[in-house]
């Protein structure tokens, strides 16, 4: 492996006697990880149906290693059912160590493509709010897809420079994740292109951006709230020094212990000032100490300010009657909907999270769960709604075993002959499932299922 000279010298200083072990890692295979979506399936149940050999990732309760040289979990119907996310093992750590409770208002500031946001959303269990932001509009589209695939409905997907969020969301969130853009030194083994990118934009370029983002995020955290900062790089200027900068400018923040694991290394403070900031509570993941590529994590708490009024603006109640065709569909669904949370724009129906402030002038891709569209006297349920529904919540289900060839045909967008599974006169919207987990909708007539799987999500033969 040809590493930049400057990088090698820096790592020698940082790691001292461990440097040789670190360099040897480049001769070893990378590690592939899969994280179970516990919002859809328990780890125990997933292990009963998983068709590949999986090894537990010891510090992540729902994370597993798989042999990426032999199997392709992205090419399996369970992937399309949103049962898991494929993620480098050390990258699973930040969302895992930010303590999320159902009902929290959570912000992921740099969220695309959603590796961490999908876990944060799963932990909310459908309660509270996940606001997932990314500055890049193309990457934010991928983020939307991944969150909808995971079945997460209590959503706000933003595409903003974080500075534009600070006024609207001042001290609004209970938990914030900043998985900052960085020079990516921890990705060199996994992706050689990162070395070239590092030569163009190195640590000093990113350090300024990171200091800005962390200060902006800090202002959106409520007193008593918690914030986790992470990068996938090793340079101190993007890690400990960013945290030192926050602690110096915002004394209301303090570092917290992160749930430990043998392979974790403590942060690396330099000099008396940094020593005094408890930076050894931050965590470093090095590839020569555990089976993960490399990360930095700092968990922070904003101190309480004593008694506080709840300043979050309550959402404005959206009253009024719902269109009949929507009402008819919702009556089939075994779930209690809060009438005040529906919003309809140009026929598109959304089920909104509660307690959102007014968000004029912000660029966003999605607020709430997109339920579907009211079109000329009919309601068409959406792909996102299908992914959010559990099989037990809808009465008309076509549940195929994974081995039925119609599963792949459905994912490819083909019409299905299901006359063996239904009565001749059965008709209407059916939820298509694989082994009990929803994939999408189809419309039944005379034993044939018209395919309503979202065209942009279809199974590509070349995948
Ligand atoms: C490390 S990646 C995030 C990965 C993501 N958290 C995940 O787990 O899938 C950093 C992201 O920050 C975004 N970004 C870059 N500059 C930004 C900024 N100033 N504000 C917000 N996001 C930014 C990039 O578009 C990129 O998607």
UniProtKB/TrEMBL annotation:
It comes from the Bacteria. S-adenosyl-L-methionine binds at residues 110-116, 134, 179. Pfam families: Methyltr_RsmB-F (PF01189), Methyltr_RsmF_N (PF17125), Methyltranf_PUA (PF13636), RsmF_methylt_CI (PF17126). Keywords: Cytoplasm, Methyltransferase, RNA-binding, S-adenosyl-L-methionine, Transferase. One of its GO terms (biological process) is methylation. Residues 22-303 form the SAM-dependent MTase RsmB/NOP-type domain. CDD domains: AdoMet_MTases, RsmF_methylt_CTD1. Belongs to the class I-like SAM-binding methyltransferase superfamily. RsmB/NOP family. This is RsmF rRNA methyltransferase first C-terminal domain-containing protein. It comes from Faecalicatena acetigenes.
């Amino acid at each position: 492996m040809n590493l930049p000279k400057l990088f090698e010298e820096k790592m020698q200083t940082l790691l001292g006697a461990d440097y040789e072990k670190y360099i040897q890692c480049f001769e070893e295979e990378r590690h592939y990880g899969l994280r179970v979506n516990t919002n859809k399936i328990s780890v125990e149940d997933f292990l009963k149906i998983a068709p590949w050999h999986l090894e537990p990732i010891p510090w992540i309760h729902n994370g597993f290693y798989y042999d990426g040289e032999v199997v392709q979990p992205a090419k399996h119907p369970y992937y399309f059912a949103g049962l898991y996310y494929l993620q480098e093992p050390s990258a699973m750590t930040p969302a895992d160590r930010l303590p999320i409770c159902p009902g929290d208002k959570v912000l992921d500031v740099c969220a695309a493509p959603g590796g961490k946001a999908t876990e944060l959303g799963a932990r909310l269990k459908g309660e509270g709010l996940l606001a997932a932001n990314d500055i890049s509009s193309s990457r934010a589209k991928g983020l939307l897809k991944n969150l909808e695939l995971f079945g997460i409905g209590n959503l706000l997907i933003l595409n903003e420079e974080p500075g534009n969020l600070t006024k609207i969301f001042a001290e609004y969130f209970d938990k914030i994740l900043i998985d900052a853009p960085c020079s990516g030194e921890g990705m060199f083994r996994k992706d050689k292109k990162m070395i070239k990118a590092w030569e163009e934009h190195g640590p000093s370029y990113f350090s300024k951006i990171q200091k800005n983002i962390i200060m902006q995020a800090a202002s959106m955290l409520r007193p008593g709230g918690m914030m986790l900062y992470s990068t996938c790089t090793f340079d101190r200027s993007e890690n400990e020094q960013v945290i030192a900068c926050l602690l110096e400018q915002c004394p209301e923040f303090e570092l917290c212990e992160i749930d430990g694991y043998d392979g974790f290394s403590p942060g690396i403070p330099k000099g008396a000032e940094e020593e005094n900031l408890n930076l050894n509570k931050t965590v470093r993941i090095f590839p020569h100490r555990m089976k993960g590529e490399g990360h930095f994590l700092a968990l922070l708490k904003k101190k309480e300010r004593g008694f506080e009024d709840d300043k979050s603006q309550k959402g404005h109640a959206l009253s009024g009657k719902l269109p009949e065709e929507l009402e008819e569909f919702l009556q089939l669904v075994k779930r209690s909907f809060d009438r005040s949370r529906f919003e309809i724009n140009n026929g598109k129906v959304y089920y909104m999270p509660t307690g959102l402030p007014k968000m004029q002038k912000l660029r966003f891709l999605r607020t709430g769960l997109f339920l579907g569209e009211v079109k000329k006297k009919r309601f068409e349920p959406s792909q996102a709604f299908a992914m959010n529904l559990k099989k037990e919540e809808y009465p008309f289900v076509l549940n195929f075993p994974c081995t039925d060839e119609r599963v792949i045909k459905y994912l490819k967008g083909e019409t299905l002959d299901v006359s063996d599974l239904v009565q001749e006169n059965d008709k209407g919207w059916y939820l298509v499932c694989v082994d009990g987990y929803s994939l999408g909708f189809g419309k039944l007539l005379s034993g044939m299922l018209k395919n309503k799987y979202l065209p942009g999500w279809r199974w590509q033969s070349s995948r």
